[in-house]
Amino acid sequence: MKDKDEFLEKEFDFSKAVKNPYAKELKKQVTIKISPAVIGYFKDQANKIGMPYQTLINLYLSDCVKNKRELQMTWK
């Protein structure tokens, strides 16, 4: 645990503080390999709607999770 900040302890009353209810939802930075064409596609789409491409990728993947989408592939 981090040492307490003396200034903060003196200046602010934390006795009624509550934990962030969204702490479980915080994003985690990861490293993955994505082809330049895929990154380019999401960058173009993100530019059209005015948001960062990483946010768009996260929204897309979140939709997959929310709707429990399963990958279906067939090789011919």
Can you tell me about this structure?
With 76 residues, the chain is mostly helical. It is 45% helix and 0% strand. It is built from three helices and no strands. Helix 2 (36-49) packs across helix 3. The mean pLDDT is 88.
Short description:
By secondary structure, the protein is mainly α. It has helices spanning 6-11, 36-49, 53-66. The mean pLDDT is 88.
Any chance you could write out the topology, listing elements then pairs?
Elements (H helix, E strand, L loop, with lengths): L5 H6 L24 H14 L3 H14 L10
Helix pairs in contact: 2-3
Keywords:
76 residues; mainly alpha
Sheet having the most strands: none
Mean pLDDT across the residues is 88
Q: Catalogue the unreliable spans.
A: none
- What fraction of the residues are assigned to beta strands by DSSP? under 5%
Structural class: mainly alpha
Helix content: 40-55%
The best one-word shape is elongated
Taking the alpha carbons of the first and last residues, their distance comes to 55 Å
Radius of gyration: 20 Å
What's the count of strands?
Answer: 0
Task: Give helix and strand order, one letter per element, not per position.
Answer: HHH
How many helices does DSSP assign?
Answer: 3
